[in-house]
Amino acid sequence: MRLVRILRLRLRSLLRQTRVDHELNAELQFHLQKQIQENLASGMTPADARAHALRSLGGVAQIAEECRDTRRVTLLHDLARDGRYAWRMLARNPLFTLVAVATLALGIGATTAIFSVVDAVLIQPLQYPEAARIVSLGTRWTDTGRETPRLTGPDLLDLQNSRAFDAFSWYDWGGEVGIQVAGTGRFAGAYRVPPSFFRVFPVEPSDGRTFTANDGEQAAVVAAGFAGRVFGSPERALGRTVSVEDHAYQIVGVLPRDFAAPRNADVWLPMPPLPAIAGNRTAFNFQAVARLAPGVSLRQAQAEMTLLGTRLARAFPDSNRERTFSVVPLRDRLVAPVRSTLYLLLGAVLLVLVIACVNVANLLLARATTRSHEIALRAVLGAGRWRIIRQLVAESLLLAVIGGALGLVLAYAGTAVLTRLAPDNLPRLGEVRVDWRVLVFAGACSVLASLAFGLAPAWQASRVDARERMAGRGVLPGRSSRLRNLLVAGEIALSFALAVGGGLLFRSFVMLTTADLGYRQQSVLVLTAHRPATELQQYVQVARFFSRLGSDFSTLPGVNAAGVTFGLPTGPYGSNGSYIVEGRHPESWGQHLPHAGFGLTSPGYFAALGIPLISGRDFTDHDQYDAPFVAIVSRTLARETFPGEDPIGKRVRCGLDASDTWMTIVGVVGDVRQDSPGSPPEPQLYMPLEQHPYHANQVQIVLRTAVPPASLIPAVRRRMRDLTPETAVSFTTLEDMVTASIGTPRFRTLLVAVFAGLALLLSMAGVYGVMAYLTAQRTNEFGLRIALGAQRRELFSLVLGRAGSLAVLGLAAGVLLSLAIGHLVASMLFGVEPLDMITYAGTLALLAAVVLAAAVVPAWQAARIDPISALRRE
Fold it and tell me: How far apart are CA 186 and CA 720, in angstroms?
């Protein structure tokens, strides 16, 4: 109760200060008057009675202050007075306040916007129950360290009963798959999963239920978004039928809109029983997820998987000898491709914030010079050094609060821009928002920034010699100028390092966009098509249909050439694996076989894409399923597998569709960058579409056009609808596909370039501020020099030389910082070395020009000083 009474008293003293002070004064006056009355009664005169009463009480004002101190709220009142005074001082200098607030707002706003993305993508847990226990399993090769997030079918059988997990599941397919609803085809993100998938992700359906083992392969679950788009509402989706590969599934449940596992999933279909799919220990067709058992740590689960991998390596040396398993938190697996990019952007924008703080610190130092008389007067009147520092820090804190508030507004806008600029492969993009965590971060940035740019100027300002300043001599100590110079040199160093990093990424991106892809991406319309098939004869018919369709499209007005492929560069389809050369490798699948990408193509595909035929021939209409099997190899495969030989006529075999048929090489074509412009050309093995029909029902048709590719979409769509309405189709251009494949490099290059530009502008402002301050401080000296015969160009050179010395100091430190940044971005560079001399030289020239441009105006002002006016002021 006593504590509650004390808190109530202090809260009342804080919120009702005027009333409490009035009550305190009334009480003190009561005691004073009572003492006076007692003194009068003892025979004192009125004057003596009052004087004696005041002496006995010890001073009314002092007692009042002691009483206020006992309430422990005096400091809060002092801080409030400091805040009000700081507001008046900032309001008196609107230009200074505007520049300082705008500088801080840019730094805090940009930093907060980037942090909102980093927080949502890298820091926050996944939005699943007990998400920290969900892990992704993968395969790691012990000899090379290479890792894939996939497992083979037999691996699933071996791992599913591990005691480290209380739920274990897997899935395949994924991405855009053709489905049919009411006889019409469309693409959707479809995955095959076993019922255990919904134990790893214990999601409650918004309508209906999830499927169980008793449903067999007849039930389906769909996402709420898909149900709304296709059926009008989630409720209307229940009981409806979707068909995939001519297999009908009845929708039994709808999952809520915020559930997205795996990524971009629209439809979940039942997985066939494991024994039916677990036959090949070299085909990594499945992705596995699991939920750690209670009390089992990630390290313990990894140890058990490593032990199991060792056992399998001994049991199956041909396939598992150099393989083991990895256990990775699911969140880490999802964000791994973009983690380094986001941390790089956060580091870059933090440098911008530091530069902004340095700029504001310089502004405060300059402002402290004009306030030296005021500060000296406060010291003479009894203000201690810490009291002066507290007042100046309060002004800095107020600047940071205003700058932080404006920066938060910029952060909202910046976050929206970032989500639009972000590449499609950025996971969890829909979760990016400015929430309370981001607000806390913005507040922390504001407070830390106020301390960063406010303490040093406040410390310097508090060192004014009050007697000399009141006598009209001296301003701030010489350390102030040295501190300003040091801050500007550091600003230049940070700007140089950031500009070098941006320059390296820019040069890398230019090299990436101008790399020889091995094909021509311009003026190519890409039609992605999926037609259902389940039996061999159906697959053969579908392959023949698509192959003939490519020939038909080549006759459309505005189409120069057309072809069909499974394995278009930067596309979603394709395969890879080992191959055997007749007479060179044992005719059995095992370790140490050559590896290549597999592609299926129709006649005319290479011409449509502009891939050169180096030797031999292209596929023809005669290369059908019942004809001798043939193949075409890329230049790299021919060089690596048949060095110094002509590969034409040699025979190879691969495991694309479990076919043991030997294929005769009939041609050699140029290399292509298959995955993206940044991927090196790798061996490619091309096969006729009709001879490997099991993958021929999901293809991409490429049309080389003489008109804008998009203008042909309506005609092609009508043709497809008329010929085969059940075929799912979508359209894009090859140029857009290539652009999307380098979305992450473009994203980081653009943002780092923007941050580097901001840093350069802030550096220019910092150099200008120092030089302008120097010119103003030395006006009398410069006037005296001119009066004594100095040439104006000498003063101009003097100021520029001072700026040059700051630039040299800053650039020297910047070179050392840039070496560290070059090392950090080395893995992100393409065709550029971290010590690229062109980038360093260009950045050096640019920053030198920026420094000189910032110093020209103050130097010009120094050269134009009127000596008479300057001497009069002296």
Answer: 12
The residues, ordered by sequence, that sit 6+ positions from 272 with a Cβ below 8 Å of its Cβ are 192, 217
CB-CB neighbours of 648 under 10 Å: 17
How many whole angstroms separate alpha carbon 780 and alpha carbon 870?
5
Half-sphere exposure at residue 395, Cβ-oriented, CA atoms within 13 angstroms: 27
Percentage of the chain exceeding pLDDT 70:
81
Rounded to two decimals, the pTM is 0.81
Q: Answer yes or no: is 114 within a domain.
A: no
Q: How far is CA 673 from CA 148, 393, 495, 516, 518, in A?
A: 20, 58, 36, 8, 7
Query: What dihedral do alpha carbons 788, 793, 794, 796 form, nearest 10°?
Result: 120
- Same domain, residue pair 421 and 374: yes
Check residue 477 and give its pLDDT: 45
Cα–Cα distance for residue pair 553/731, rounded to 1 Å: 14
Domain that holds residue 194: 144-321
How many whole angstroms separate alpha carbon 523 and alpha carbon 708?
7
Largest CA distance in the chain: 137
Three-state secondary-structure class, residue 40: helix
Q: Are residues 253 and 352 in the same domain?
A: no
Q: What is the pLDDT of residue 174?
A: 65
Neighbouring C-beta atoms of residue 481, cutoff 10 Å: 17
Task: Report the C-alpha dihedral over residues 35, 38, 39, 42, rounded to 10 degrees.
Answer: -170
d(CA 302, CA 30): 79
CA 445: distance to chain centroid? 19
Q: What is the pLDDT of residue 759?
A: 87
Final residue in a domain of this structure, among 29, 46, 72: 72
Instruction: Indicate the number of domains in the chain.
Output: 4
Q: Which residues contact 115 (CB under 8 A, 6 or more apart)?
A: 346, 438, 441
In the structure, what pLDDT confidence band is assigned to residue 550 with cuts at 50, 70 and 90?
Answer: confident
- Cα separation, 475 vs 816, whole angstroms: 36
Residues 634, 678 within the same domain: yes
Q: At 87, list the tokens.
A: 């507001």
Residue 111 within any structural domain of the chain: no
CB atoms within 10 A of CB 668: 21
Instruction: Tell me which DSSP letter residue 371 carries.
Output: T
Q: Token digits for 639? A: 């060089």
Residue scoring higher pLDDT (285 or 795): 285
Whether 543 and 672 map to the same domain: the answer is yes
Q: Does 667 map to a domain?
A: yes
As a whole number of angstroms, the distance between CA 265 and CA 174 comes to 8
Rounded to the nearest 10°, the torsion over CA 155, 156, 157, 159 is 80
* Domain-embedded: residue 763: yes
Residue 787 reports pLDDT greater than 70: no
Q: DSSP string spanning 611-679?
A: --EEEE----TT--TTSPPEEEEEHHHHHHHSTTS--TT-EEEE-TTS----EEEEEEE-----S-TTS
- Alpha carbon distances (Å) from 571 to 145, 189, 196, 574, 673: 27, 15, 31, 8, 12
Shared-domain flag, residues 750 and 715: no
Same domain, 622 and 575: yes
pLDDT single digits (tens) 572-616: 888 888 888 988 877 666 567 888 999 999 999 999 999 999 999
* 326-365 per-position pLDDT tens digit: 999 999 998 888 899 999 999 999 888 888 888 887 777 7
Whether the pLDDT of residue 302 is over 80: the answer is yes
Three-point CA angle 616, 622, 626, nearest 5°: 115
Alpha-carbon span 351 to 728, nearest angstrom? 49
Residues 790-825 pLDDT 10s: 677 777 777 777 777 878 888 888 888 888 888 888
**Rg (the chain; Cα; Å):** 38
Check whether residue 175 and residue 315 sit in a common domain: yes
- Please check whether residues 626 and 657 belong to one and the same domain: yes
Domain stop point among 28, 51, 72: 72
